[in-house]
Amino acid sequence: MSIKPNSFVIAEASKCVGCKACEIACFRAHSNGVKKPLTVGNIKTPIIPRIHVIKNEKFSVPVQCRQCEDAPCANACPIEAIKQEDNVMVVNEKACIGCKACVMACPFGAIEVRSESEDKPKIAYKCDLCKGQETQACVKICPKKALRLFDPIEEKKRRSIEAVCNLPEEF
Q1: What is the reported pLDDT for 149?
Q2: Do the Cβ atoms of 64 and 8 come closer than 8 Å?
Q3: Left, alpha or beta for 158 (phi > 0: left; psi -120 to 50: alpha)?
Q4: For residue 91, what is the domain's CATH number?
Q5: Contact partners, residue 38, CB within 8 Å, separation at least 6
Q6: In order along the chain (171 residues), what is the average pLDDT of each group of 10 residues?
Q7: For residue 12, is it within any domain?
Q8: pLDDT (0 to 100) of residue 1
Q9: pLDDT for position 26
Q10: 1 falls within a domain
């Protein structure tokens, strides 16, 4: 268990237009070193993003992993394939058996079990904050800036500074 709370990507539904650019950017960021540009004509595998945009007539909002410190998905995994590494909950895709226990345990609906192709086993996919990359692809690509990385420690510092700055002068 980590002492520092995990950061996670948060969405502002009022800004999201449902364009799904975040889904494509996520897929691209996790396409294991593909160098050529990905277009409709050259993608051979299913697009499996680790963020999902829910859209209806009234709103659209991306849903992604909240990087829970005491993660229900990790606690439910019978083989411990979901672990915390450097304050990020990650799936060991080589160990995952595709049992879907994590899917049922996630209160946010942010984990999914799929296969890249019919000849490959089904495994769990979830946001890993683009682990090993400089920035989160979904945050970087969002045209309306509806997504941002939420760091609980930085947010607490920001709110503390705001509170001190807004103290009455007689204090």
Answers
A1: 94
A2: yes
A3: alpha
A4: 3.30.70.20
A5: 24, 27, 28, 31
A6: 79 94 92 65 78 92 94 97 94 96 96 87 95 93 96 83 75 53
A7: yes
A8: 46
A9: 94
A10: no
Output the pLDDT for position 53: 95
Residue 34, SS3 per DSSP: coil
Place of tokens 């990087």: 67
Question: Three-state SS for 158?
Answer: helix
The pLDDT value recorded for residue 161 is 82
Pairing of the two strands 147-150 and 60-63: unpaired
Query: Which structure tokens are listed for 35?
Result: 């160098």
Backbone φ/ψ region at 22: left (φ over 0), alpha (ψ -120 to 50), beta: alpha
Structural domain including 104 reads 8-165
The tokens for 109 are: 């609906």
Let me know if residue 3 belongs to a domain.
Answer: no
Whether residue 131 lies inside any domain: the answer is: yes
pLDDT tens digits, 98-136: 999 999 999 999 999 998 778 889 999 999 999 988 899
Contacts of 106 (CB under 8 A, 6+ apart): 65, 72, 73, 126
CB 96 within 8 Å of CB 81: yes
**Total domains present in the chain:** 1
Where does the chain have alpha helices with state H?
21-29, 72-76, 101-105, 137-141, 152-165
- The answer to whether the beta carbons of residues 123 and 115 sit under 8 Å apart is yes
